[in-house]
Amino acid sequence: MRRHRTVDGPQGPLLSINGRELLNFCSNDYLGLAGHPELKAALKEGVERYGVGAGASRLVCGHTSAHARLEERLAQFTQRERALVFSTGYMANLALLNTFSGRSGVIIGDRMNHASLIDAALLAGASLRRYQHADPRSLQGLLEKTASARNRLVVTESVFSMDGDIAPLPEIAGICRKAEVPLLVDDAHGFGVLGKNGGGALEHFGLDMQTVPLMMATFGKALGAFGAFIAGAAELIECLIQSGRSYIYTTALPPALAEAASCALDLVVRERWRAEQLHKLVARFRREALQLDLPVTDSVTPIQPLRIGDPRRAVELSDALFEKGIFITAIRPPTVPKNTARLRISLTAAHTEEQVDHLLSVLSDLF
Q: Of 8, 56, 264, 316, which one is least surrounded by beta carbons within 10 A?
């Protein structure tokens, strides 16, 4: 059974849980921005100006200048024509797949795609076909088999949330373009971390809007805030505004949170040392983990899973780490496939080299 661990205080490399201070290695706060003083100030100022709740959906009276400014910034930052803000990444993916597919459509996705993409495809009523994980040839085969389908869409994560590996997006995009099938990329775990300016996996690979018409990313990971957005061609964003049910029929993201997300975007651009520090820590962890013969994967992102296999063993190791003052959650089925339970280690720019070294030392003793 899964259980809650109650945190008392802000996110950071140290967490207070049940009166104990633990080293936190399972947060998606990759750039260490969740407790940034400028972010907190932006949120407070937003509350003073707009209050707490948005009051209604965006198309009723919940659309504020805070939402408009954030969307303009996001479109400029991602070099897309327009952007649209959602309350969560889950809701954004629901809107995308329900709007651009349908009961007569075929959604072709990576076998390891996030649950929100799978659920969205099922709720859209489309035929869901899944290609082998990060395998362009498998995708090519499915596109050939579904060539007669009227309405097709290919979807993939950029950085896979449980394995940390990066999808071969240039190859996938090339195959989709040749087949004239639109590609949607969920960049939740790449945005803010990858790319010269933090633009994510698409910037990292140099993929423009013509190559990848639609992208989704979230504010609750590298940006340390809350919410999500979709960016793409102006007419596609307009389609989402008019037809995206999880956009239309829900109360708008609180405008104060939109202000916080705008501030976070400024910090991503201004404080690039955070991403540089993060990548240095990732390289340090991987180098030492390989020398210690720990069961690391090929991930070069902040997500560094240790494959355990047996779920009971994964939970035992997580509990042992907890007793030693380190918080790492055991991830097991159905979140991941059978026999692939793991400790999902997440590194952040707020960690120190000493903290990473301490983690490695404890892991060495346990393994």
A: 8
